[in-house]
Amino acid sequence: MLRISVMSPKGGVGKTTFAANLAASLTERTGRILAVDLDPQNALQLHFGIDPGDATEPSRKARQGASWQEAILRNKHGVDVLPFGAFGMAEQTDAGHAASGRLEGIETLAADPLFKAYSLAILDTPAGTTPMLRKIMTVSDVVFIVLLPDAASFACVPQITRWLQHDHGQPTESCHPYYILNQMDARRRLHRDVKTLMGHVLGESLLEFHIHSDASVSEALAQQQPVLRYAPHAQSTRDFGRLAHWLGEQGVTERAMSVS
User: Fold this and answer.
1) 55 in Cβ contact with 70 (< 8 Å)
2) What's this model's pTM, rounded to 2 decimal places?
3) What class is the 2-259 domain?
4) 218-227 pLDDT tens trace
5) Do 253 and 244 contact (CB within 8 A), yes or no?
6) Could you give the residue ranges of the DSSP H alpha helices within the chain?
């Protein structure tokens, strides 16, 4: 099974929304997908009409040694969700212990037979640059780094590129990351200028296309649906469809199907 990780150097860029809608778009090509929520905010499930309370009992059983399969929540949108609570971190208050436990969870999931039931998994990660993300990158086939076309995201670019290139002076051995701009409005000069500047810095690592600013995305979340289901003809739906098509051109979806 192939794994696509979605990351961001800062919060508030729409990372989880991006992960959820990409997952829904990819089901059109690969069939049912597993979406794994590694972010303590535990918001991924909200995009698929899942009540957060539904995860409580399965997550408790998983923490006590039951199969991860029992914690997976199915829904009508073709994306099975493994909520953050399944890793047992929601009840831990110590940040160090939580980070350590999530690392163990990643390793366990990577080796768990449940992965064999899916051709593709989307991993929604916590914002920032932490040691946990390095572990996630080691089990990822594709990494998307989501940014906004604003000054704050542009200021984070040197930090994230340095972090990706080095770990305490040693080169990072991981898959090549792709950067993508979210909530882009080409009518705004600032957005156009930031995209141009990011292109100079990131080169071909910055995807030439982007996810447009589209009210349908937030409206879909309010209805607890992927935008593909809520507004099939919206601009953002076409954007995520284009991204899914691009992954197909890179051979990702085909490889996913071949190893399922």
Assistant:
1) no
2) 0.88
3) alpha beta
4) 999 999 999 9
5) yes
6) 15-30, 56-63, 95-111, 131-138, 151-165, 189-202, 215-222, 227-230, 235-249, 252-259
